[in-house]
Design goal:
This protein is mainly beta and about 260 residues long. It has strands at about 5-10, 15, 20-30, 35-40, 40-45, 45-50, 50-55, 65-75, 80-85, 90-95, 100, 105-115, 120-125, 125-130, 140-145, 155-160, 165, 175, 180-185, 190, 195-200, 210, 220, 225, 230-235, 240-250, 255, 260.
């Protein structure tokens, strides 16, 4: 009867591998092997000698986990079994944030499956980040800055590379935002309750418009987006009169502080 002494994945040189890898079964008395038992699946060997049987991990292998490997001869005799660990291909399911500033990047947690053997997270054309996951379903990394960005928003795919391969590109996306810029207001002065048209660039995903008064006190304004270059805000109450500023904030950060006088 055949005896197996070791099971080695030709790609990883360990007893771990993924579907499509060639695996070497070392042992004795294996010349009459007709079948490799890969867990509950029967696999036809690609080569057979008295001391070496090779086969390819089937595409139907479990996504991840341990399976037992043995060989069966033409007389139906089955050898001892040794463990083999299937390394699952990683998948991504989402991110902790939808966007980061293009100027700085930022902390992001990637969620998915089969991350434990991960080596790097790839953020589209922006760059690669080395990672060492400690959990199978998530890993935290710092998305790199995107200093060459031209458009206000740049959408990048996020993937992870592990011993099981790379996750599918396009499944999980992150947006890089340039900071907005305010170029003018009309009018340049106003009192509480009055409308002010704010002109500029990068007014995509605006979340706050802040008025700062002459005493450095701040108040958030109610605003209505008009376009990527214009919005209308209502001067908030409770601020001191005199020279102040207006800033606009998006995921890209704060704009410049545009002069505005509260009357």
């Amino acid at each position: 009867m055949a005896t197996i002494t070791s099971v080695v994945d030709a790609t990883t040189t360990t007893n771990q591998g993924r579907p499509g890898d060639t695996v070497q079964i070392n042992g004795t008395a294996m010349a009459t092997t007709t079948r490799v038992n890969f867990g509950s699946a029967a696999v036809t060997p690609t080569s057979v000698t008295a001391t070496l049987v090779t086969f390819v991990v089937p595409s139907t292998a479990a996504c991840s986990g341990q399976v037992s490997i043995s060989v069966t001869s033409n007389t139906g005799a089955t050898s001892n079994a040794l463990p083999f660990f299937v390394i699952g291909t990683p998948t991504t399911t989402g991110l902790s944030v939808a966007c980061v500033p293009a100027a700085t990047g930022g902390a992001v947690t990637l969620f998915g499956t089969n991350f434990l053997t991960g080596t790097q997270v790839v953020v589209g054309a922006v760059g690669n980040v080395a990672v060492t996951p400690t959990q199978s379903a998530q890993v935290t990394f710092t998305a790199p800055a995107n200093p060459g960005q031209v458009g206000t928003v740049s959408t990048q795919p996020v993937t992870i590379t592990t011993a099981g391969g790379s996750s599918a590109s396009g499944t999980t996306l992150i947006d890089y935002y340039l900071a907005p810029a305010v170029t003018s207001t009309a009018p340049t002065t106003g009192t509480a309750g009055e409308s002010v048209t704010i002109n500029g660039t990068g007014f995509v995903g605006v979340d706050t418009v802040t008025f700062t008064d002459s005493a450095a006190a701040t108040a958030l304004a109610v605003f209505t987006p008009i376009s990527d270059t214009q919005l209308v805000a209502t001067v908030p109450g409770g601020l001191a009169t005199g020279a102040g500023t207006i800033t606009v904030h998006t995921c890209g950060g704060n704009s410049n502080a545009q002069a505005f006088t509260i009357t």
